[in-house]
Amino acid sequence: MKISPARVWREKDSRYRLEGSKCKKCSRVFYPPKPSCPYCGYSDTERINLPRRGRVVSWTVEYTVPEGYREYAPIIVGLIELENGTRVIAPIVDVEVDKIYEGMYVEAVLRKIFEDGDEGIIVYGIKFAPST
Questions:
Q1: Which residue segment(s) compose the domain that 89 sits in?
Q2: Pairing outcome for strands 53-62 and 105-115
Q3: 10-residue stretch averages of pLDDT, the chain, 132 residues long
């Protein structure tokens, strides 16, 4: 087994719910959640649910991918600006490479990220798909 079930369990909230953190001092919101603010360094943050819709700001296409992900190639990875201004980097699915464009509306969907062999654990997470 390559993946620790304990790690998957610890990360389930941010992985499945698209949670971020909000600094209690400067009020900046960031993803992924962290115990201290990456902007001002304050060590008191609160977990918040992030909006599930956003727009594509930029993207890249990965044609050469590591073993375990080859069935998903090519992989589109996008910089998504959510409705509240928070930016996340995540895979974009359900769209052809030549159909993606800057400003395209997308929404968070739960999809399989990785499967640890035939009898191992299956890890799910947030990806983004085109939205109307």
A1: 5-130
A2: antiparallel
A3: 72 80 96 93 95 97 87 93 96 96 97 78 90 84
